Amino acid sequence: MAIVRSRIEAELAVGLLRSQGLRAAFIADDVGGQEPQLQQDGVRVIVAPEDEATARRILADLDDPGPE
């Protein structure tokens, strides 16, 4: 599981993970997007336990673009 800042970021992360063949979803306690201020604690991106290491590696690669 990872925590991201917003529903949009979660949707992008889930899309990326699914495009890599992983089962992923997100959980946001924001009344279906109607109350975005409720996202103050972040939005959880979840994957199957057996996919967690791969998902963390994929998401970490987004934060580290590598050498320029």
TrEMBL record:
Database matches in InterPro entries: DUF2007
Superkingdom: Bacteria
Domain DUF2007: from-to ranges: 6-62
Cited Pfam families: DUF2007
Protein name per Swiss-Prot or TrEMBL: Putative signal transducing protein
Species of origin: Asanoa ferruginea
